[in-house]
Amino acid sequence: MRNKVIEIWPEINWIKDESLREKVTDCWVYAIENSVLSPEDLETIPFSLLIKDCNVSFMNHKRTCVHLAVENANIMLKNFGDSIKVNMDVMIAGAILIDVGKLLEYELKEDGTLTTSAAGKILRHPFSGVSVADRFGLPVEVQHIIATHSKEGDLGKRTVESIIVHHADFVSFEPFKA
């Protein structure tokens, strides 16, 4: 399964810290093994159940979010220099993991369509994602990004890395609702 995770998530190799990279991979292996979805399903299922007739896949959206976050951070670092600090490994790990909890909130109906499970309706993916990350010892800074990437983070403080990931996620989500 590890090879499958690396195959669908080549961006994991952008994480320079080997221990962090392994923990991120462990999270995805666990989530897939405890999901009704296979790695292949992630390439075909819609990235959101909230968008009618969504034809952008889960992995297309997720990988776009990671790329947007990295590009935005690199531009900010280039233009702002020492005025801003971004921990790229933490940011990339967080961006890769923000929706890992979605794998635990989905279920398949008898007709094969994807839906939100009863548990997923009361425990959204930012919460289940943090639980998965904590299980594998991800640092609190990464857990923070997972917890605050969505609307659940709107009432609290976000780190620089979380702000970047939050906006990368929403800029690759909200245009499909326009």
Gist of the model:
This protein is mainly alpha-helical.
Describe it for me?
With 178 residues, the protein is mainly alpha-helical. The protein has a single domain, classed as Hypothetical protein af1432. It has ten helices and two strands. Helix 5 (88-97) packs across helix 9 (140-148) and helix 8 (125-135) runs antiparallel to helix 9 (140-148). It starts with a helix and ends in a 7-residue tail after the last helix.
Provide keyphrases for this structure.
about 180 residues; mainly alpha; Hypothetical protein af1432; two-stranded antiparallel ribbon; 10 helices
Oligomer: single chain
Please give the alpha-carbon distance between the first and last residues: 37 Å
Spatial extent as radius of gyration: 16 Å
- The appropriate CATH architecture is Orthogonal Bundle
List the topology elements.
Layout (H helix, E strand, L loop, with lengths): L1 H7 L9 H16 L5 H4 L15 H23 L7 H10 L4 H4 E3 L5 E3 L1 H5 L2 H11 L4 H9 L11 H12 L7
Antiparallel strand pairs: 1-2
